[in-house]
Recover the amino acids of this structure.
């Protein structure tokens, strides 16, 4: 399978665990154990997405450990370190209205209205998880106001005033000079 818009990265293989081919997984899901619940998982190996089956897994400290089908040797498992794990986009549970997955927010154009004009601040590059709230990392893009990277708290109703996924735009209440 080739990389496509149909897949969403949900974790990665971080390292080996034990001598029987188990691996440690770093999960991007919340809660982290959700990664173990997906029936159809894909691994990006040598630039190609390939199906992989998680035979067994459990939480282990701040990570997960898992046995993958066909991986029963520590050296084979070591070769998987760093491989991304993904699921089909349509396998993700539906969210309530006005809630979004991070991948839906990435690449949105971020605009602010200042002095009656719509100004383009940039594009959402990624999000950061902090203790208080998530933070949008907005990087400059073609047509943006300037070349500054901005960190904008993801607080709908406070700084985030509108999200239009169809148009690919997020409207924010933010000082363009900040």
């Amino acid at each position: 399978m080739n990389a496509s818009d149909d897949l969403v990265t949900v974790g990665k293989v971080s390292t080996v665990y034990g001598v029987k081919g188990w691996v440690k997984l770093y999960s991007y899901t919340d809660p982290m154990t959700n990664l173990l619940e997906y029936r159809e998982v894909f691994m990006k190996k040598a630039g190609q997405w390939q199906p992989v089956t998680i035979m067994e897994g459990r939480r282990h400290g701040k990570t997960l450990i898992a046995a993958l089908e066909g991986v029963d040797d520590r050296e084979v498992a070591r070769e998987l370190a760093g491989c991304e794990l993904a699921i089909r986009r349509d396998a993700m549970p539906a969210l309530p209205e006005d809630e979004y997955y991070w991948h839906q927010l990435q690449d949105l154009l971020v605009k602010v209205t200042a002095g009656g004009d719509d100004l383009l601040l940039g594009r959402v590059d990624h999000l950061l998880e902090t203790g208080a709230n998530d933070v949008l990392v907005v990087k400059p893009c073609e047509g943006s106001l300037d070349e500054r990277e901005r960190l904008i708290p993801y607080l709908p109703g406070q700084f985030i005033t509108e999200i239009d996924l169809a148009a690919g735009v997020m409207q924010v209440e933010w000082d363009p000079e900040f």
